[in-house]
Here is the input.
Amino acid sequence: MVNEGLFVKLFRLLPGIALLFGVGFLGKILEKSVGGYSKAHHLAWMPNIEYVLWAILVGGIIANTVGVSKTFAPGVKTYEFWLKSGIVLLGARFLLVDVLRLSARGAVLVTLEIALSILFMQWLGKAFGLSPKLTSLLAVGSSICGVSAIIAARGAIDAEEDDSTLAIGAIIFSGTLALVSFPLIGHLLGMSDQAFGYWAGLGVDNTAEVAATGALYSDTSAKIAILVKSVRNASIGFVVLGYAIYWAKKGLAKGVERKVAFLWEKFPKFVLGFLLVSALASIGFWTKPQLASLGNLSKWAFLLTFAGVGLRADFREMKKRGFRPFAVGALGEVAIAAITLGLVYGADRIFTL
Amino acid sequence: MELKRLSPDAWAVLAALAFSLLIRFGLIGRVPW
Here is the structure.
């Protein structure tokens, strides 16, 4: 039975959701009006800023000036919900055969990326003298999927609450760096939409930032980036299980008894939703106009996500927490960006991505 | 199953599937962008 608590909970989310919508919609309006103004006045020097960046910018300005008050905070946190709903709906824009083909290539690259990133982050954490468990969290966060991977690993390796808060802050910080730098580098190198999509999916830490980085480049890049990132997300259970066994062997965490149940528990279920929608779309469950509607609905869900990315990028909070974890996060991001760029270039030569 | 027990992932999947069914059976018309 649905009790009253659930409705009260949902009601508390409304102000924050309205704020996400308002910020996202403002982003859309700014894209049109500023873009239209610069076109009408022939301001060629003015870059065409897309709604994705406007939504993040407006959100970031709010977060770092007036801040997000307690009334809005619970609803703003729903950006993860919009992100995952958006990914499930995005399945409608893929044929299942394409998903399988792209994921098979993605899986090879993801395996290499995870192995190289973990090795590098372990070394970097040691070099900076971070605690071993904070280093493990940062390694999991930057190799797989940012915040949700850190949360999954926190319980499994019995890490300190403070370490995981720091690791999450550092991952979000480096994700913001990627958002700004990846599209610029992609354009400088003249990367194709496909290659950029693979790079963003492999190199950017957090799923929301992956979607935003891909969308800043092109629609195709966003689709591929999200798909590759989903393959990365799907591997979360295996990596976390590996770390749990490692720490348990050292006697510093309790072991995992039921490994299959553990893997299922950590498996991101929205990936299954994405596959289901893609399979239904492939057998013609929806008409063409209906598929277009589903695609648009997915875009609206992502719009709320991008507003959320800006609204939680509170740099004042990061300043309070000390510099080192953020430096490790940022350095790790730069190195992983370089490693994954190399991987994508190599793969592009072999498969023509 | 109690609704409160659903994981955030499951909520997102259910919401997306519900909307896609509403669109399939014409209860939601064209979604503009």
Remarks:
- The longest helix of chain B spans residues 8-24.
